[in-house]
Amino acid sequence: MMKHFAARFALMAACGLMTATPAMAQFWQCAPFARHVSGIDLYGNANTWWSQAEGRYERGHTPQPGAVLAFEATGRMRVGHVAMVSQVVSEREVLLTHANWSRRGGVETDVRAIDVSDAGDWSRVKVWYGPTGGLGTSSYPTKGFIYAGHAPVDYAHHAGGEVAAG
Fold first, then answer.
1. Mapping DSSP to helix (H, G, I), strand (E, B) and coil, where does residue 15 land?
2. Relative to the CA of 108, which of 102, 135, 150, 166 has its CA 20 to 30 Å away?
3. Are 142 and 71 in contact (CB under 8 A)?
């Protein structure tokens, strides 16, 4: 009798957990997520965003909230990466909101990124990485910022879903 009750309870608990998952929780790639939260209407792999933005969006090397930081393709990131600036902390530090970085398909909000370029032009950055709980030793080349021209979407409150903060 007790085993039967325990099995029923476990089944009900599992069903309850499945329905508790927010409707918007999903597997995100960085580019569709950046488009969703920034409003920058570009498509394709992240490594094409910088060239696609030419003539359509302002581009530059100064971080602004709502701008998308475009990472170059590398051996480890064959299709590049894009991340939205959620806050400018200082001249050489920002908080990023992005997807598919620390955890495949996962979203992270307000994670630390710092400019480690020699010229202070955001051409090389270090980004908080969840599994190590810090910036780590890797740095990544970037092309610059693509400016949205409007306020960014507050993803954590707008779309729901599971998000991690750094």
1. helix
2. 150
3. yes
Q: Pairing relation of β-strands 163-165 and 107-115?
A: parallel
Structure letter (DSSP) for residue 66: T
- Can you tell me the distance from the alpha carbon of 121 to that of 134, in angstroms, rounded to the nearest whole number? 22
Q: What type of residue sits at position 96?
A: L
pLDDT in tens, 82-115: 999 999 999 999 999 999 999 999 999 999 999 9
Distance CA(156)–CA(139), nearest Å, equals: 27
Q: Which residues of 61-94 are buried (b: 16+ CB within 10 A; e: fewer)?
A: eebeebbbbbbbbeeebebbbbbbbbeeeeeeeb
What does 110-147 look like in DSSP terms, one character per residue? EEEEEE--TTSSSSEEEE-BTTTTB--S--EEEEEEE-
